[in-house]
């Protein structure tokens, strides 16, 4: 990971820094706002389908975006993934590039009681931010330029634990019937957001200054979800594929995060070797208790599927204008808007639920998403668009459902209007889903008759 340097022309597109300064190495100058860049897709499968997850489930993968989907698991599964992003930022007259690598998350899902119950837990990044922005302004004395340096590092993580239960009708001999699932996640958010602002003068007679602010946040958030499945086209004979539909709803409850704020404002000079030497402390606040209240979030999705393919569409909304931060937090939250995300995603498996060769057992995925971001910069709400695709490749033979998941997304964020930056990005996703051999039983007590 590393910082990226934004010249004066690009920095001019960024007004005063808002609440959180984030994770070192993010690369996007927009990460200087809000909690930084919020991460929505926790694993490769979902990221390769436009981020859909409310009205879908994967028999061999875990999706915490709707905890009700856990009951769709057929086997225990462990998942891990990474995302590699290449970015290009464009301003009115200049452009620059950056790249970064992020962990998508680690998760484990376990079904039990004949699939009527399931648990899921894991760890994933919640926000990923980081920047180094420089600008300059001439001294009134005409003796050179003052350099202003804005840097940020930190970010929020999410540890989750969820439980889900399913109810279903008695299915007929052809498998027709309905199923209702409900689940809940306890999500523990934790992490720190750090910002630093420096003014460095070219000549003597002025004090170089540094103001650093550290905000440590932590607390629990409850998310709820439900899924309803039934037959859209029933199977009449066993050779029929039929067609099933699913409706999903999710709610993430609002919560009040505990926060501790530490602030230091000091003047400094440089030694002959260039080492920064603190000179005088102007202000010092040590772990002042504060609160930051997150607003509620909603999601609604609809999907159709059969043994070979699936198609799902969903919409998510969170009104970040209702975020509340007390004065002690030092947060400025007036540049946030209503976040809305619409996603469309599908998958295709040529072999369906039966065998087939390697390429027939491979699952092919495609997705699209459009988001009105929660960040409002220079009175303009940012938007983002992305097109994704990927594959889940079977590994370790036909006796397991383990998969190598690969995918990519091409997208764009922001625009050149109103003096803003346009960010174009290309993501590459690599992950693994590991399930036990069909002859093995994980987490199941063995009995000797």
Structural class: mainly beta
What is the CA-based Rg, rounded?
25 Å
The CATH top-level class label: Mainly Beta
- Please give the largest β-sheet: 14 strands, antiparallel, barrel
Unreliable parts: 1-25
Spatial order of the strands in the main sheet? 3-4-5-7-8-9-10-13-14-16-17-18-19-20
Helix content: under 10%
Q: What amount of the residues lies in strands?
A: over 45%
CATH-assigned fold name: Porin
Count of helical stretches? 3
Kindly give the count of domains: 1
Distance between the termini: 56 Å
Number of strands: 20
CATH architecture: Beta Barrel
Specify the overall morphology: elongated
Write out key terms for the chains shown.
single chain; elongated; 14-stranded antiparallel barrel; mainly beta; Porin
Tell me what the structure shows:
With 449 residues, the protein is an all-beta fold. It has a single domain (5-434), classed as Porin, CATH 2.40.160. It contains three helices and 20 strands. It has helices at residues 8-11, 44-47, 358-361; strands at 5-6, 37-38, 77-90, 95-112, 117-128, 131-138, 145-168, 179-200, 208-233, 243-252, 255-270, 276-294, 297-305, 309-319, 324-325, 338-348, 363-377, 380-394, 403-414, 422-434. It has a 14-stranded antiparallel β-barrel. The longest helix has 4 residues, at 8-11. The N and C termini lie far apart (56 Å). Mean pLDDT is 85; it is low at 1-25.
